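Practice set, problem 2.
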Amino acid sequence: MRVAINISPIRGAHRYRGIGIYTKLLVKHLQLVDKQNEYILTTKTSLANIDLIHYPYFDFYFLTLPFIKLKPVVITIHDVHPLLFPEHYPPGLRGRVKFSLQRWSLRGVKAVITDSDCSRKDIARFLPVPKDSIHRVYLAADPALKPQPYSRQKQIRERFQLTKPYFLYVGDISYNKNLAYLLTNFKPYAKDFDLVLVSRALAKNIPEARAIKAQIATDGLEATGRLITDLADEPNLLACLYSGAYWYIQPSLYEGFGLPVVEAMQCGTPVISSTGGSLPEVMGEVGISFDPQQPQALELAIAQVIVMTKGKRQRFVEKGLAQAAKFSWEKTARETVAIYQQVVAKSHAPST
C-alpha cells in the first residue's frame, strides 16, 4: 500500500498539543513496525498514486476533509467534548454553519479511528458515521517518558523552587479539564503541598488562562501554585516533573483518552483521576478515583492519599507501571495498519 498521512497538526498550532503529539508518534511508529508499505507525509488534500489518505485529526468548526474523496479516507476523531458541553463551547451562527459542513464532509469516510470505547460510543451518538466503521485504537505514552533518577528530580525541584511535596497536573486548560474544581479542592492542603500546573496554554492571553490565574490569586495560592508554561524541548524535563510528583491529578469532566494519566503511571507516579469519560477505561483500578460532579470528591481523595503509608503508595506505583505497560505505540501502529489494510481491501473488492 501507499498510504498518505496528512501531517498538518505537526506543522501548525497543534504541534505541542495532543493532536500534534499523536500525529508525530503515529508516523514514527508506523515507519518502525511496517516495512512493507510506503508512507507519504503531506499537507495536501488530494494526491495521485496512493491507496488511501489518513487525516489524524478532525476539527468540528474548520474544514478538515475534502468533500469529494478521490481516494479512500481514514480519519482520527479523538473525542467530541465540544458537543458534550455546548454551553461552554458556543459556536455562534458561523460555527453552526461550519459544523453542518463538517458533518457533511464525513460522508464517504471509510473508517474512523478513535482513542477509547467511550469516544467510540460518543462519536456514534453525535456524528453521522456508521458504528461499524468506528475503530477503537488505544494511544500510549511516549516511550521516552520513564522514571528519572532522584538526582535529576532534585535539580528540577530546585529550579522551580518546589520545597514541599507536590501534586501535578499536565494538559490543556479548556472547560472539560475542570481546573477551577482542582484549585478549589486543593486549597485546604496548600499549606503542606505545592500544586504544579504544566500547560503551554497558561502563557496565552486567553479567558481560560486569566480565570485560572485570578482564582489562584483569590484563593491565596500564589505561594504554593507553580505554573510551568514552557518545557523548552528540554530532554526529560516532563519525565522529571512526573517522576518527582507526590501524586498526579486528572480532574477532568470528560476525556476521550487521558494521555497524561498513562504518562504519569509510566513515570512511576500514582494517579488520582476523575471518572469523566474514558478515564476509568484507561486507568483501570490502579489509582484513586473520584466523581468530578461531586463538589468535594477530589478534596476527599487528596485526604485519602496524604495519610497513606509509603508501602501502600508504592503498591499504587507498581500497579500503575503495569497498567501503563498495557499501552504501547507498537500496538497502536500495528492496529492502525490493520485498519488501513481492511479499508484498501474493501475498496478493491468487486461490488455486488
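Problem 2, part (b): a different protein.
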Amino acid sequence: MDWFYCQHGICAIDLDDCVNESRELNEIAQNVIADFPNAYIEKSPSGRGLHIYFKASNFNYDTNIYYINNCKLGIEVYIAGVTKRFLTLTGDVFQNGNLEEMKDTLPPFLEVFMKLPSIVRQNDIEETVPYLSDESVIEKANKSVNGEKFRKLWNGDIPSYESRSEADLALASIIAFWCGRDIEQMDRLFRESGLMRNK
C-alpha cells in the first residue's frame, strides 16, 4: 500500500461503508459514481468503502459553503490545496478509469452531497433551509440511478412490494436521501406522492 496526498490538482472522494459482500453499492455510492463515470475508483483498505480519484485543477473550494467531511452521509473529500490528510492507495480496483479533469463535475456533486445547511433568522428563531427545493428533489430523484424505482413509487405503482408499508418506507428513504433528511420537506413531498393520494 502507498499513501496519497492531494497535489498537482489530483483530488479524491472517500465513501465509507458503501459496499456489501456481494459488491453491491448503497444508494449514495451509486449516485456519486454516476457523477464520475470515468474516474479511477479503488476499494478502501477495509474493502467496505470506495476511493474515487480525479483531477480538479485550481478548484476554489469554499469551506464556508461545503463540508470537507459529511459524517451523516459518510462522504469525505480530499481537495488539492485544501485537505492536508492522506488516503491509502490499495490497488484493489473497483472501476478502471483515468485521472481525467473533472473540475466541472465537482460543483454539482458538492451541491447535493456536501453543502452546509444555510441558517436564516425569522422572528428570532433559527431554521435550517433545505439545500434543494421540492422541485429539485423530485428532478434529481427522477434522474438518479434509482430513477425508475422512484417514479413508480411516486406515482403509486407498488405491485412489486409485499405491503403498502414497505412501499411507503422505500419512497420515504429515497426522499430522505435527496432532501438531506429534512423532516418537514420529507413530509411535504410524501404527501404530494401517489402513495399518499391513494390512501
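Answer key, part (b): The mean pLDDT is 80. Residues 2-116 form a domain with the Prim-pol fold fold (CATH 3.30.2250).
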